[in-house]
Each structure stands twice: as structure tokens, then as C-alpha cells.
Amino acid sequence: MCLTVNIYYTGKNGSAKEFVQEMISKGIVDQIRNEKGNKRYEYFFPENDPETVLLIDCWENQEALDFHHKSPMMEQIEELRNKYDLKMKVEQYTTVSKNNQDFETVIRCRTATRKFKDKKVELEKINKILEAGRLAPTAKNLQPQKIYVATSNESLEKIDIVSPCRYGAPTVLIVCSDKNVAWMKEDYSTYEMDACIVATHMMLEATNVGIDNIWIEMFDKQELKKQLNLEDNIEPICLIPIGYKADDYQGNPLHNKRKDLKHIAKFI
Ligand SMILES: Cc1cc2nc3c(=O)[nH]c(=O)nc-3n(C[C@H](O)[C@H](O)[C@H](O)COP(=O)(O)O)c2cc1C
Q: N or C terminus of the chain: which is more exposed, having fewer CB within 10 Å?
């Protein structure tokens, strides 16, 4: 079981954002993230409502949430909420997944991160993310994916040579596809599709284990092949910088700008 709480804080003249900034600068957010049983404590800034901030926090069980409610942090949060005169709307729901967040939360929380902290990603989390890439479906189950994990300074420097979009991430997944392995149809190969599914699996698993990420297309593929000494048949498809987002990262303004369902889906 996993408990997710969504809290919408609303205030006038950007006071909800100021509230979040003070929560971060006072170290309250970091302390809560380190509380026993906390799986996520994340603020979002809905683009269509500048007066509101959405907090999504997930807890392992009711006991952890009760403990959090009794912690000294709650008093500080209450004080700040009064200071900024914020209204609060709370939604709480329970999910059945054992150790992970529910799928709905993962797909809503995944967002492009363009500023990372200088904090390493734990090896066990990297391995979980890679495992999600291993389990991805591929055409005819041929599994052409090749994933290179850049963590050393030397490898990260190579990434910086080929792309301006590492955004300070301490680890970059380089998702490639082996053209000699992928399904070759008459006039095209599925090597790119396969790798894109693998990359998507990994991004979602990264979010699931609390690791921020972004899909990067903007990189020099030929130069990367040269830097990594890749064989001709190994085609780089995308980069996925992963890590922990910087405290002052304001979020991707496009994240909440999705088209209405009626513009993208049609029952026929
Ligand atoms: C195929 C693809 C290529 C992308 N390339 C880049 C890129 O080169 N640089 C970058 O900063 N963001 C890149 N992004 C991130 C998108 O801009 C971002 O996903 C989009 O604005 C939607 O926002 P969200 O991911 O926060 O929901 C890319 C995303 C996708 C799916």
C-alpha cells in the first residue's frame, strides 16, 4: 500500500510560490524527504493557475503519514501557511502497489528537469532503471537496445562536448540501438522505435524511484559515436540525464500545457 496526498495551496500575488521558496530555504522540504516512510515530497506550479502550488507527497503507509503529521515540521508548515495566508485543498488516495508509487502518480510527476543537483544517483536506483529498459517490449523481441551509463567525469565531459543539455546531471543514460539486431522490414527498421520504448520505460521507472530526468534529442550523434568509439551499427537514439532536481528549479513551463483529449483522440 502507498498513500498519496495532493495538497493545493492557493494565495494571492504569488504568495504560494513564496511559501514554497521559504519551505525550501529553511530546509523543511529536505527534512521531510528524509522522514521515515516518505517516498516523495514534490511541488508543482500549475501553468494555468499562477496563484496555486500543488504539493504531491507519497508515504509508505498510514503510520508514516501519521508520524509526519505529529512531527515538529508540521508546526513550522502551519506557521508559514498562516504567514502567507494560504487556502488549502487536500486530496488523499491509497494505492495498492507494494513498494512503488502508483502508475497515475508516476505519469503525472514525470517532467523534464533542466537543472540538477550535484548529488549522485544511488547504484541500486540506476540498476532498477536499467532493468525497466531490459523489460521493455521490442519488435519480434529482438532487443537491439544498448545503454551506456555515463557517470565518470571523463564520460560526462564527452557528453558536454556533444550536447548543451546535460543540465548538471551526475549520470547520463545514452540509449542506443543496434541496427544489425533490430527487425528489418522491407523498407525500414524498427531500431528507433524499440529504443524509444526502452527510453520511455526507463524515464518512468526513474520517476518511480524518485529520480528526475529528461529526454534529450539535441546532441551531435556522429560526434558521440566518435567520442565513445561506437561501431557503425550502434546508433545513438537519445540521452537521458538523470539525478535529483536542483531546489531552485522552477519546473518545465510546458509540462502542464497538454492539448485537450478531444484534439488528440477520437473514437471511430
Ligand atoms: C523526443 C524528445 C526530445 C526532446 N529533446 C529535448 C532536448 O534536446 N532538450 C531539452 O531541453 N528538452 C528536450 N525534450 C524535453 C521536452 O521539451 C519536454 O518533454 C516537453 O516540453 C514536455 O514537458 P514535460 O516532459 O515536462 O512534460 C525532449 C523530449 C522528447 C520527448
A: C
